[in-house]
Write a structure and sequence with these properties.
Length: 254
């Protein structure tokens, strides 16, 4: 049986130090993947580092974007390229080393039976190392709020370590997607659920970045809260309309 063609999307912005370390771990764990570095014009020269890596390793490719346009936009650009070029599996992975490369084989194996595989911190066997308590609380609260607001039973709604089957992405990319940052992952999860995708979570141990600085900000968190609330209200109204229409279509016994 032919192995699925797999591409790993790795957005970067000022990850000059972390990128080579993370890429080496990835390509050592899964030697036959393609790594696509998506650099948003990093001022620290991350794009040049990625070009140097690609010059000596044919498995590494670089997509240069002129400016910082957000995590969601970077991933969407990579996803469109992956689908257009006929890849079978598309992986989201952070460049900062927080996503364990040695967990990816299990995630790729799970993609044999699922359309979306999430590397989850909040299922049995998963966890977080070296994160301060307030970051853990924000993550847990964010995922719990998204679960309740959207009515979707996924333990780690905000997780950024994922494997998508290309068939699912092709359907998802047919619609406009404008969410960014923290809420991008929530948005993609709800869209997958709405399409009836099979979603599976694989436990991972998430580690605080070893090099560089976190891009998390209060604005990103507020955007996620506002958008998730709006999506939740929309889903509830949609469910109410569907129930009302079903009642109207039910024949009345006389």
């Amino acid at each position: 049986m032919q192995q699925p063609r797999t591409i790993v999307l790795m957005p970067t912005y000022d990850e000059r130090e972390a990128l080579p370390v993370t890429a080496d771990r990835l390509l050592s764990a899964i030697p036959d993947v393609t790594l696509l570095v998506i650099d948003d014009g990093s001022p620290d020269g991350t794009g040049d580092v990625a070009d140097a890596m690609a010059a000596v390793d044919s498995r590494v490719r670089v997509l240069h974007r002129s400016s910082k346009q957000g995590l969601g936009a970077a991933y969407l650009a990579g996803m469109r390229l992956a689908v257009d070029e006929g890849f079978d599996l598309v992986v989201e992975m952070d460049a900062d080393g927080s996503h364990p490369a040695d967990a990816l084989p299990a995630m790729l194996a799970a993609a044999d039976r699922a359309d979306l595989v999430i590397g989850s911190r909040w299922v049995p066997g998963g966890g977080i190392v070296d994160w301060p308590l307030h970051r853990q609380l924000i993550s847990r609260a964010g995922t719990r709020y998204a679960q309740l607001a959207l009515g979707i039973d996924v333990a780690d709604m905000t997780a950024g370590y994922r494997v998508y089957r290309a068939e699912l992405l092709r359907e998802m990319l047919a619609c406009e997607i404008s969410s960014q940052g923290y809420c991008f992952q929530i948005d993609m999860t709800r869209r997958a659920a709405d399409l009836g995708a099979r979603i599976e979570e694989v436990p991972i141990t998430f580690r605080e970045r070893e090099l560089g600085r976190s891009k998390m900000s209060s604005g990103i968190i507020v955007e996620a809260l506002v958008r998730t609330t709006a999506w939740g209200i929309g889903r509830r109204f949609g469910q109410l309309r569907s129930s009302a229409e079903a009642v109207r279509r039910t024949p009345t016994l006389r």
